[in-house]
Amino acid sequence: EEPASVPLSEDLTADFHVLDEDGNTVNLSDSFGRPIVVNFFATWCPPCREELPYFDSACERYGDRIRFMVVDLTDGTSDTVESATAFIRDENGYSLPLFFDVDFSGVEAYQINAIPVTLFIRADGSLLHMQIGMLDENTLEDYLLQLLA
């Protein structure tokens, strides 16, 4: 079964804010000007866990040209800043840029009610694609190449 695909207008992508690993507030719009990939995940989500290695690998290959943001849905119970950091850094050794949606700013901006969700945002800030559900490695690569075209 193919994951649902949500076509959106060419308007500017909805902005939201998250915390970085140092506790600083970061706005999505701070990165406009280069392509951005935002992956919303949680550590307890099996499909999220399955696709994270693809994002980690893609970030190693394209991180100089595409801004990657892996955003944990940090509810303070199932996932905390500490548990998500331990999962990404210690348990899996991922080097992905990690962020925390502690007040559900991103969740509200995109009405996220299932994860994973991945946003592919063009350098001009418009949304190329919003993927609801897990990506396979080839599909991820296809969207990354479209962002760089």
Explain this structure.
With 149 residues, the protein is α+β, with helices and mostly antiparallel strands. The protein has four helices and eight strands; from the N terminus they run E-E-E-E-H-E-H-E-H-E-E-H. The protein has an eight-stranded mixed β-sheet. The protein is globular. The N terminus is likely disordered.
In short:
The chain has helices at residues 46-62, 81-91, 105-109, 137-148; strands at 5-6, 17-20, 25-27, 36-41, 67-72, 98-100, 117-121, 127-132. With 149 residues, the protein is α+β, with helices and mostly antiparallel strands. The chain has an eight-stranded mixed sheet with strand order 1-8-7-4-5-6-2-3.
**Into which percent range does the helicity of residues fall?**
25-40%
Unreliable parts: 1-9
Strand content: 15-25%
Side-by-side strand order of the widest sheet? 1-8-7-4-5-6-2-3
| Number of E-state strands | 8
Radius of gyration computed on alpha carbons:
14 Å
What would you call the shape? Answer: globular
Largest sheet: 8 strands, mixed
- N/C terminus separation: 28 Å
User: Secondary-structure element order, as H and E?
Assistant: EEEEHEHEHEEH
Quickly count the helices.
Answer: 4
Averaged pLDDT: 92
Class computed from helices, strands and strand pairing: alpha+beta
Layout: helices, strands, pairs:
Layout: E1 5-6, E2 17-20, E3 25-27, E4 36-41, H1 46-62, E5 67-72, H2 81-91, E6 98-100, H3 105-109, E7 117-121, E8 127-132, H4 137-148
Helix pairs in contact: 1-4
